[in-house]
């Protein structure tokens, strides 16, 4: 396994997600202060996916530099607000998810065995009759 590579890819996905959240926040703000710009940014964002935030921002820079600065500021603020909480939340959620999935798997495994035994017993009874 390559933990550094996984960490780099995870960081890139998280950065793009925070860009997406920043864009959503700005669209909501603009809908109250500048509805036309809100509509424009919503349309631009639907045409230019934020999945790769760097490509998205480079394209937006050609159209509206001031929006890029605003997105970068909001994204940085979001990152500062969540990054301290994130490691523990991820560990906790992964642990709980793993426990739930293992419990469900164990329940399914133990439920399927009695059914198989019941079917085998039923077949045996039918053949002896």
Descriptive notes:
The structure is a single chain. The protein is an all-alpha fold and 129 residues long. The protein folds into 2 domains: 1-83, Chaperonin-like RbcX (Non-ribosomal Peptide Synthetase Peptidyl Carrier Protein, Chain A); 85-129. The protein contains 5 helices and no strands. The protein has helices at 3-33, 35-47, 53-63, 65-82, 86-128. It is elongated, with a radius of gyration of 26 Å.
Concise description?
With 129 residues, the protein is an all-alpha fold. Helix content is 90%, strand content 0%. The chain contains 5 helices and no strands.
Task: Chart the SSEs and their pairings.
Blueprint: H1 3-33, H2 35-47, H3 53-63, H4 65-82, H5 86-128
Overall geometry: elongated
Query: What is the overall number of helices?
Result: 5
Q: What is the chain-wise order of helices and strands? A: HHHHH
* CATH topology grouping of the largest domain: Non-ribosomal Peptide Synthetase Peptidyl Carrier Protein, Chain A
Provide the low-confidence segments as ranges. none
CATH architecture of the largest domain: Orthogonal Bundle
Strand content: under 5%
Please give the radius of gyration in angstroms.
26 Å
Q: Give a count of the beta strands, DSSP E runs of length 2 or more.
A: 0
What is the total domain count?
A: 2
Q: What is the terminal separation in angstroms? A: 58 Å
Helix content: over 70%
Mean pLDDT comes to: 88
**Broad structural category:** mainly alpha
What is the makeup of the main sheet? none
